[in-house]
Amino acid sequence: MSPFADIVEEYLAVRRAVGFILDQPGRDLPRFASFLDAQGAETITTALALSWAGEQGSAARRLANVRIFARYVQALDPATEVPPPRLLPVRTRRLTPYLYSDDEIGSLMEGAGLIEPELWAATCQSILGLLWSTGMRVGEALRLEHADVSFAAGRLTVWLSKCKKSRYVPLSPSTLEALASYDRLRRRCCPHPSTTRFFVARRGGPVPYLALREEFLGLLERTGVPHRAAPQRPRLHDMRHSFAVRTLLRWYRAGEDVGALLPRLSTYLGHVEPASTYWYLSAAPELMALAAERLERGEVVRP
User: Fold this and answer.
1) What is the C-alpha separation between 269 and 244, in angstroms, rounded?
2) What whole-number distance in Å separates Cα of residue 192 and Cα of residue 257?
3) Annotated catalytic, 227?
4) pTM for this predicted structure
5) Where in the chain are all domains bearing CATH 1.10.443.10?
6) Catalytic one among 15, 155, 235, 237?
7) Catalytic residue among 67, 143, 186, 271
8) CATH classification (class only), 102-223
9) Looking only at Cα atoms, what is the longest distance across the chain?
10) Residue range 214-273, pLDDT digits in tens
């Protein structure tokens, strides 16, 4: 194995040990190491990085992965050049979330209850209610095993979600009772499911995301949600955004120290770092207004 390949392997191992998945860098960087070897390079230079990144599509992404790697290598070899951020900058656009109202969620839940057959209706209704009340990711809800739902402890266990993080998700009494009711109906309608997942599809197997999404889109049409103008169609994932914004609004209105409480919300949502959660401060005009009021009074909004 070449010296560059050794360093790449070490770099990926170190970052994965602290929770990063690094699927794409795990593919890009060994190829970059092979390229450096083929060029007879003794160190990383901006010219070499740019030459390699531009050989195929997604040059900005490839160069971004090299840029982070080069910073790591520079600590070992000061002669290493780190490509400047202005070279092929990665431009990302985060969609503005659709924030559901209580009435809209009520309409969707009611509409889900009319789906046929009864078990599939209960499955769709229960998943929507869980997403709304906990802010879980859709995939986390669909992957829940029956053993992950503890009625005695009043919580869910999410295993190895984004960035391989696991966490407990405490449930409110009403959410817990709704899940218990679903569990009883599921046992009655499907006593011998073909899966150990908590939520089951029409025939007792795991719930496919695409089937849930298709049902959700149908619900939007049948219930008339959204009732107000929106830059884009509501998504299932927007349940998560709505939960985060509702929580922040509640804290602001109660006069809580949002900066001190935000790490708790980050942990509950399974964010890698609080910075991911701070984005929600700009997600709703009402939140921005409340944050501005705090600033005007000289209170700290961000750490």
Assistant:
1) 8
2) 49
3) no
4) 0.67
5) 102-223
6) 237
7) 271
8) mainly alpha
9) 68
10) 999 999 999 988 755 555 678 899 999 889 888 888 888 888 887 788 888 888 888 876
